[in-house]
């Protein structure tokens, strides 16, 4: 290198993180899209944590798969394993949703991940299990180099306004509408 030449700065992909994504709408695929981001980020060595609100099924495909991904990927569930529909909401679901957000706060303070996914957090807010103000405070105080992904139906307008990217999943045709449809292991479960 000559005296007047500047060395090119080393490219660090982690310094380019920090956007807020929201995947919302009535269509299928919001969690699947977030899991796709989890896989992509893990493949490039990022530390990724998915916090699942309202989900507690340790036998789901994503819980089984994450065991194979290594120590820099984790999925934490804060939900009942017997919660099958939003018509069955109980007080414990609100408690667990608040515990999930508190876990996210602690995680950001102690061991900040490169990518943090709050799966079904919009659904928790929509069903008034989690105050929108608490989530907004958390999002506005997030670390500038943590990529955040939020999923769930009916995302609050304040979340949409804060987001850098919003994708709305809308069904055109859905086999859930067929009579007697049962979720299939490895596809919906």
Q: Total number of helical segments?
A: 6
Assign the CATH class: Alpha Beta
Strand order of the largest sheet: 3-2-4-5-1-6
N-to-C SSE series? Answer: EHEHEHEHHEHE
**Overall residue-averaged pLDDT value:** 89
**Strand residue percentage:** 15-25%
Give an overview of the whole structure.
This protein is an alpha/beta fold and 189 residues long. The protein has a single domain, classed as Rossmann fold, CATH 3.40.50. The protein is 32% helix and 16% strand. The chain contains 6 helices and 6 strands, in the order βαβαβαβααβαβ. It is globular and about 45 Å long. The N and C termini lie far apart (57 Å).
Keyword list:
alpha/beta; single chain; Rossmann fold; 6-stranded parallel sheet; 189 residues; globular; 6 strands
Brief rundown of the structure:
The protein is of the alpha/beta class and 189 residues long. It contains 6 helices and 6 strands, in the order E-H-E-H-E-H-E-H-H-E-H-E.
Helix and strand topology:
Layout: E1 20-24, H1 30-43, E2 48-53, H2 61-66, E3 73-78, H3 91-110, E4 115-119, H4 121-126, H5 132-140, E5 147-151, H6 157-162, E6 165-168
Parallel strand pairs: 1-5, 1-6, 2-3, 2-4, 4-5
């Amino acid at each position: 290198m000559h005296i007047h030449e500047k060395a090119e700065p080393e490219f660090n992909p982690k310094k380019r993180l920090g956007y807020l994504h929201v995947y919302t709408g009535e269509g299928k695929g919001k969690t699947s899209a977030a899991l796709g981001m989890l896989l992509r980020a893990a493949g490039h060595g990022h530390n990724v944590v998915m916090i699942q609100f309202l989900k507690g099924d340790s036998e789901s495909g994503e819980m089984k798969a994450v065991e194979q991904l290594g120590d820099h990927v984790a999925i934490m569930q804060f939900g009942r394993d017997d919660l099958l529909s939003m018509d069955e909401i109980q007080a414990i679901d609100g408690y667990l949703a608040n515990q999930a957000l508190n876990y996210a706060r602690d995680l950001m303070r102690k061991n900040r991940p490169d990518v943090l996914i709050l799966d079904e957090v919009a659904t928790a807010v929509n069903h008034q299990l989690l105050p929108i103000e608490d989530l907004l405070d958390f999002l506005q105080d997030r670390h500038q180099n943590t990529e955040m992904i939020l999923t769930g139906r009916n995302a609050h307008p304040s979340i949409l306004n804060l987001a850098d990217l919003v994708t709305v999943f809308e069904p055109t045709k859905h086999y859930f509408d067929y009579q007697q449809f049962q979720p299939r292991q490895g596809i919906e479960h």
